[in-house]
């Protein structure tokens, strides 16, 4: 006899469904398509794993489509004198784990320097920002990555 779905799998299914914004009706349509049953508790472990993999694939697909749209850097313009400083800033924000969110970097710059974008900083402000980021890295204990 095949093993039936576990409570942990049920929790995972509901959790992943919530993450990808699949409502109850659509989730049960997926269950019926995969298992030919109308109840989650009637599924086997193998069928539940198949459903979980499908939900994870949807989650990954959503993540990729959002990332390609929102994470474009427009660093082509800006002050030519600060190009190398901005590259250093992006390296430091990468160490901090901020490079996946451009709004976070620009929000930080706006709060600290009253400028909407990194590209608009002058040489002095870029130097100050680099020093601030270095201190933040040291405080977080990631200073080994600075070298």
UniProtKB/TrEMBL annotation:
InterPro entries: Phage_Mu_Gp16 (IPR009363). This is PF06252 family protein. It comes from Peptoanaerobacter stomatis. The lineage of its organism: Bacteria, Bacillati, Bacillota, Clostridia, Peptostreptococcales.
């Amino acid at each position: 006899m095949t093993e039936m779905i576990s409570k942990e799998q049920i929790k995972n299914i509901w959790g992943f469904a919530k993450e990808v914004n699949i409502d109850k009706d659509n989730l049960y349509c997926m269950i019926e398509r995969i298992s030919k049953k109308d109840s989650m508790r009637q599924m086997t472990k193998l069928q539940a794993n198949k459903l979980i993999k499908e939900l994870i694939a949807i989650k990954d697909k959503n993540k990729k489509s959002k990332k390609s749209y929102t994470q474009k850097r427009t660093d082509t313009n800006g002050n030519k004198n600060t190009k190398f400083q901005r590259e250093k800033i992006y390296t430091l924000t990468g160490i901090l784990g901020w490079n996946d969110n451009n709004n976070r970097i620009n929000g930080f710059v706006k709060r600290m320097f009253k400028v909407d974008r990194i590209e608009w900083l002058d040489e002095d402000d870029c130097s100050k920002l680099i020093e601030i980021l270095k201190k933040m890295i040291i405080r977080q204990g990631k200073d080994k990555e600075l070298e």
